[in-house]
Amino acid sequence: MIRPELVCPAGTPAALKSAVDAGADCVYVGFRDETNARNFPGLNFSRKELEEGIAYAHARGAKVLVAINTFPRAGYPDLWHRAVDDSARLGADAVILADIGLIDYAARTHPELRLHLSVQAAASNPQSIGFYAGNFGVRRVVLPRVLTVPEIAAINGAVAPVETEVFVFGGLCVMAEGRCALSSYATGQSPNMNGVCSPASHVRYVESGRGVTSQLAGFTINQFGLNEPAGYPTLCKGRFNANGKTSYLFEEPTSLNTLTMLPDLIKAGVTAFKIEGRQRGRAYVAAVVQAFRAGIDAVMDGRPLPATDLDSITEGGRQTTGAYEKAWR
Amino acid sequence: MNKRDSLSPVRLTLGPVLFNWKPEKLRDFYFRLADESCVDSVCVGEVVCSKRTPFFTPYLPEVIERLQAAGKEVILSSLALIMTAREAEQARELTMTDGMLVEANDVSVVAMMAGRPFVAGPLLNIYNEGTLAYLHRMGASRACLPAELPESVIAALAAGPLAAGSGPEIEVQSFGRLPLAISARCYHARSRNLAKDGCQYVCAEDADGMDVDTLDDDPFLAVNGTQTMSYHYLGLLAELSALRRLGVNRFRLWPHDVDMVAVAALFRAAADGLIDTEEAGQRLADLCPRAEFANGYFHGREGHAYIQADV
């Protein structure tokens, strides 16, 4: 069995240190601009912070991956090209890319730079993975959250030695990643073009005598009673009216948690486990990283999974194993 | 001489029917298009859900023959989300069909084409010149651009160095509900408390998709099986002349359960400048009485917005 790497998010230099100290094998980060899919105010790294973060991680045996996983704007590729160039210059262990044109640039310009395919490219089958591996030398593919564990095992059998990485915890897209324009349809801002989904700039909470309505760009996404906590109006996690009834049509407000599936995912031949949440604080990152570090180490040592309670940090206290189990579909 | 005479002729593509129509209805729809419509190209094939594919497959040969006999270019559109070996095999069979142009809606299909000419479909992520150029090198002779691109990006893609030489022909989505997202999960089934495996094909109950409203009953989205679409219908009519000045001469119409022969004729007249855009808009609204129209993406705004043409 492969000993899988634990790949952890860091939205700030402090979170990077927390993740490394808590046992991350790799930390992934982004630059402070629209070149990455967590382009949020107050988040991400300057060039100098990346350089210092890489030094901190490397001194402790951890790697740093740079996500440059939005789609460059036509006519203005320089911002994205510079992000790739600077990642290579500063000694990043890999870049995580989604756009075919940008991957082509990186492969031609920096043949020594290790390339990972972002989940935003939604490569969901061996032929797509073969396209990126064969044409550009992509070494690892982050799989979209649409596949069951048996489908992941079949892909691993077909694409080796290309590595796969899967999400194990955190926020969860219910659509194939990088292939969703719902956010821009409502707000004008999309993950692919702007690095944001359901952006905070377009969120409003409207109070009335009956409770709170959460809105995104004027569209009501959910309503909460007087004593209910009002959740963030992520578009695909709202309640809507369809077919004559009100429901969470796409998905409930919930977090992915696959801790109990780690043995199955390891058996399926996955190389790396990824935790979502570059927008999260260092306490969250440390708690999740510790839980999954302990889980992976237990499975590899043949011990039972340790009991861990991550309820308090999941969205709405609810958890799902998502598409990894077929019933989700 | 009218300035328009110097432009390349307008080409209309009828996109694949994204909805789950009864096979006989679909066959008759294509027969009428073959006999009566002014579209130049017609895409056929299942894009959204592989579970639907077997129903229309027996009718496909006669539909293709009828369309080709009427002088239409026929394009085989691939699935958008390929997850299983069976779906990959289905796509591979498509790419092995002799003498037929294939529209790739997933990167895997680009790989399967192995350098032979293909159409880069609107569900591939083409956001910039680098990707367009690479897909052209891979064999893309035409590219239908994604829904969310603004005019400035369309201009850069249409006017880049590629356009001067032998770059792919650019096609722009112009009519119909926009395909916004694709998922492994079926929301049509979920709306009936069914799982995808036991879906009972409930998506067939909504010929133009299932309306999705907010809790305030504001119309918002539409669901078509595993696909999420816009509630609003894209209606780029006033924008056609601007697109043609950018060098875009091919426009995609998404099929709906309306008189698509008349819709196509209207778009051709509008693209050729033979009808006033205000009148064209009124006639389109008359042809689609249930539809509300949007054009926000083209104008760099939210996709559901409708921006009034400058008078």
List the helices and strands and how they pair.
The complex is a heterodimer of chains A (329) and B (311).
Chain A (H helix, E strand, L loop, with lengths): L4 E5 L3 H10 L3 E4 L17 H13 L3 E6 L9 H12 L4 E4 L2 H10 L5 E3 L8 H11 L3 E3 L6 H11 L3 E8 L11 H6 L3 H4 L8 E6 L2 E6 L2 E6 L15 E3 L2 E3 L7 E3 L4 H6 L4 E4 L6 H19 L18 E2 L9
Parallel strand pairs in A: 1-2, 1-14, 2-3, 3-4, 4-5, 5-6, 6-7, 7-14, 13-15
Antiparallel strand pairs in A: 7-13, 8-9, 9-10, 11-12
Helix pairs in contact in A: 1-2, 1-10, 3-4
Chain B lengths: L10 E4 L8 H14 L4 E4 L8 H4 L3 H10 L3 E5 L7 H11 L5 E4 L2 H7 L4 E3 L8 H9 L2 E5 L6 H9 L1 H4 L4 E14 L4 H5 L18 E4 L5 E6 L2 E9 L4 H6 L4 E4 L6 H12 L5 H11 L5 E2 L17
Parallel strand pairs in B: 1-2, 1-11, 2-3, 3-4, 4-5, 5-6, 6-7, 7-11, 10-12
Antiparallel strand pairs in B: 7-10, 8-9, 9-10
Helix pairs in contact in B: 1-3, 4-5, 11-12
Share in β-strands of chain B: 15-25%
Annotation, overall tally of beta strands of chain B: 12
Under CATH, the homologous superfamily of the largest domain in chain A reads Aldolase class I
Radius of gyration of chain A: 19 Å
Strand content of chain A: 15-25%
Straight-line N-to-C gap of chain A:
29 Å
Task: Give an overview of the whole structure.
The complex is a heterodimer of chains A (329) and B (311). Chain A is of the alpha/beta class. Chain A has 2 domains: 5-172 and 254-328, Aldolase class I (TIM Barrel, Alpha-Beta Barrel); 182-247, no CATH class. Helices cover 31% and strands 20% of the residues of chain A. Chain A has helices spanning 13-22, 47-59, 78-89, 100-109, 126-136, 149-159, 182-187, 191-194, 262-267, 282-300, and strands at 5-9, 26-29, 63-68, 94-97, 115-117, 140-142, 163-170, 203-208, 211-216, 219-224, 240-242, 245-247, 255-257, 272-275, 319-320. In chain A, the strands form 3 sheets. Chain A has an 8-stranded parallel barrel, surrounded by 6 helices. In chain A, strands 8-9-10 form a 3-stranded antiparallel sheet, with no helix packed on it. In chain A, strands 11-12 form a two-stranded antiparallel sheet. In chain A, helix 6 (149-159) links the parallel strand 6 and strand 7 (163-170). In chain A, helix 1 (13-22) runs parallel beside helix 2 and helix 3 (78-89) packs across helix 4. The longest helix of chain A is centred in the last third of the chain and has 19 residues, at 282-300. Chain B has 311 residues and is an alpha/beta fold. Chain B has a single domain, classed as TIM Barrel, CATH 3.20.20. Chain B has 12 helices and 12 strands. Chain B has an 8-stranded parallel β-barrel, surrounded by 5 helices. In chain B, helix 4 (85-95) links the parallel strand 3 and strand 4 (101-104). In chain B, helix 1 runs parallel beside helix 3, helix 4 (85-95) packs across helix 5 and helix 11 runs antiparallel to helix 12 (277-287). The two termini of chain B are 24 Å apart. Residues 1-5 of chain B have low confidence and may be disordered. Classes of the chains: A alpha/beta (329), B alpha/beta (311). At the A-B interface, helix 4, helix 5, helix 7, strand 10 and strand 11 of A face helix 4, helix 5, helix 6, helix 7 and strand 7 of B.
